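Office hours follow-up: a student asked to see two folded examples consecutively, so here they are.
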Amino acid sequence: AAAESEQGAAQPTNGDMDVHYSSKTSEWYTPPDILELATRVLGTIGLDPCSNSHDAPNVPAARHFTREDDGLAQSWQTNTLFMNPPYGSEIGAWVEKLAGEYEARQVRAAIALLPARTDTAWFRRLRDYPHCFVAGRLKFVSPDSGEVNPAPFPSMLVYLGPAPERFAQVFAAIGDIFVRWHVED
């Protein structure tokens, strides 16, 4: 089987993995080990703007915006934020909101869990921030069955904040850390 990526190119898939390449569902829970590392960097998480629930959230944040709250329409003013946005066609809007809120100093520090799609405009929007490219495939938790499924794509975490060294120290345990090299003219 093949599904289309957000750029429209056919992607090879097999059966149950089709959903990762499509917008059939964009909700996959963040693995607990990633949340533990994020908490080590951020301390407490002030906001999860892409939460699954107010009552039983996957991300241990002080505040949660669910799909019904429309996190893109809300102010994200907070000290710390963790974001695992929907991976469908709307991912670019979430990345733009994250970068905009951070650059406007509405968010002091943030970590975003994203697919490592280096060929996208939204990736280029985050290129000046430290990245951890996860070695191997993350295992996401299915919201319906609780099953753990490896992603059919590589993942990365991006850090926006005042402590890039701390991010690098903590996340180096799961992947390589990259910072964009700036060449002077």
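And the second, which I mentioned at the end of office hours:
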Amino acid sequence: MLSFLPLAILLPLTASDPVEVPLEASPDGTVKNSGWVSLDASVSALASSLESEDGNVSLWGFTKITYGVSKDLAVGTDSHYRAVAVDAARIYFDGSDGTTATRLSVDFASGSASLFDAWARFLLTEGANLHVGQFRTPFLRTAQIEANHNLFIFPTRNSLFYRVRDGSRQGAMLSVEKELLRWDMAVQNGFDQTVDNLLLSSRVEWDLLGEGPGDIEGAYGAPDEPQLTAGIAYSNAESGEEGVAMAAGVALTMSRFYLQIETVSYEAGYNTLDLDAGHIEDEDAGRGDTNPISVTCSHLIPGDLWEVGGRYERFDDVLGRELVTMGFNRYFQGHDTKLQVNFSSENSSGDDVDIFGIGLTLSF
């Protein structure tokens, strides 16, 4: 019988990585701090707020089931790692009345309910909106992509740090859109989950060709005309020493071809943040003073049923880790229903690790 362990152990994040969130069943960083009583209250409050003659309410969601195996990872007395996991079991409640939009999302993959999104968006004026509540930090494009729209089973290491939604991501965000430009500016609680040390973030994104690739990874569904988006971002976590991070990236689709490049520059202060949060034990293993980069590409095979892709990640840490992932997707109903097969190989100054994984996404 296969052990139902969190498949996140398959990632090379297990080697003293300064992860912002516990990497359990969900790659989005599920935090087990939402009880059933508070969840029921939140759902009831949302349902009441959405009741309107002119309102529009939708319920949707998805589940991701994954299987992984590696002869290079040992679990207990077993010399080989084998695991099946429910990586995501998510439900979304969306509502809109034209000038106000709301979202509540809950994940059950960990065995208990975990609150992810809980925000309201208000239209201030044409092209300007205000988000209030719990939402993703506006920093990386890939961190804004829903888990069922990922090209690979797991997102990049950089993306994992910024796609979490928990108490540290509660705050307000002003979004301004004008023609081809989008600018997000957010103030959130920060890693101490109080207002003492805020997380300040800002991201500017330009659609240089067309309307950009959108909130999706890969070439599936892309038009024949080139779509190109570029973005830059800044983040400052005011906790102990200032933790400053800057990012840049581009995403391109050209008919059946997809290319994504993202890089992040972490200032030395991030080592202090990681130590204070208990994410690492050795200051040299932190993100501070590193410049990780990821490059992703894919090709959609004519017929729109199969897509093959590859991804390279360089962590730029003291271990000299590099991660190469190759895989293919079989689409049954686009990203809503798909089968993913991945093979990853991590090279470092320590032991090399090879991992094979299969993922199934089912949406409703």
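Two things to take away from it. Helices lie at 36-50, 157-162, 270-276. The mean pLDDT is 82.
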